[in-house]
Design a protein that fits this description.
The chain is mainly β. 2% of the residues lie in helices and 22% in strands. Among the domains are: 70 residues, Tumor Necrosis Factor Receptor, subunit A, domain 2, CATH 2.10.50; 37 residues, no CATH class. The longest helix is centred in the last third of the chain and has 4 residues. The chain starts with 13 loop residues before the first strand and ends in a 15-residue tail after the last strand.
Length: 258
């Protein structure tokens, strides 16, 4: 008699996006999972850093900051103050700070405060986005799982089937393996007997969809094929049924809503 397979709970610090994956995927730097049994890694919160793997988020020290998805803390720049868990904030008029401060101090009556707005600045370069004021910007490197093609705009998350596995990316990379379930890491190939779904976010049993008729589906690993339920559409056997929008309907085994 053939022995049955034993499923193992996904360990802390890793993600298991699909049962067909032979080994858990360790969370990259800037991400974590708080417990076991996660299907994806969580981005490190602002004000904390995550080394990746089984490491828990760690608070940045006083006078430092991290904006999220970070693996290292940055020193608060001069002319700004950094509260725990927040982005650098510019000192108010009549106050100043040196680098690494958590608060600004009042300037002596007999001396003027350095005016941050008078500083000569250089626009943020490619792969960065801008914080602070336009006259005194703070240039932050684009986080993992995002791209930054315009420093004046916020980082843009990668879409399904693409990824950015490093900081400072100006574009997301199209998935070249079978699937890319995470937008922050390189994907992997489906194991033997499985193939990628249309969105390249998971694997399903290849044999299950080969004989599916129109209006049937086999996702992610159903065999034999299953008829599309009433009120849903199944245009692709490799994708789950899609709920008909308001004002539309479908009979069972439909490929489109009408």
């Amino acid at each position: 008699m053939k022995a049955s397979a034993t499923c193992t709970i996904c360990p802390k610090g890793s993600a298991c996006p699909h049962p067909s994956v032979e080994a858990a995927i360790a969370c990259p730097a800037g991400f974590y999972t708080a417990e076991t049994g996660y299907t994806s890694c969580t981005g490190c919160p602002a004000g904390q850093i995550c080394a990746g793997g089984i490491a828990d988020p760690v608070d940045c020290a006083v006078g430092e900051y991290a904006l999220g998805y970070a693996s290292t803390c940055e020193t608060c720049p001069a002319g700004y103050y950094c509260s725990v868990g927040s982005a650098p904030k510019i000192c108010a008029s009549g106050t100043s700070s040196i680098a690494g401060e958590s608060e600004c101090t009042e300037c002596p009556d007999d001396s003027g405060c350095p005016n941050v707005s008078d500083k000569t600045t250089t626009p943020c370069g490619s792969g960065f986005y801008q914080l602070g004021t336009s006259s005194a910007p703070i240039c932050e490197k684009c986080p993992i799982g995002h791209f930054c093609d315009d420093a004046d705009k916020a980082p843009v998350p990668c879409s399904a089937g693409t990824y950015a596995d490093d900081y400072g990316m100006t574009a997301c990379t199209a998935c070249t393996t079978n699937v890319c379930p995470f937008t922050d890491a390189v994907g992997y190939d489906c194991p033997a007997g499985y193939t990628a779904n249309m969105e390249k976010t998971g694997c399903f049993a290849a044999s299950a969809t080969g004989s599916c008729a129109p209006g049937q589906y086999a996702y992610p690993n159903t065999a034999p094929c299953v008829a599309c339920p009433e009120g849903f559409a199944c245009p692709m056997a490799s994708s789950p049924p899609r709920l008909c929008p308001k004002g539309f309907y479908s009979a069972a085994s439909a490929t489109t809503c009408i």
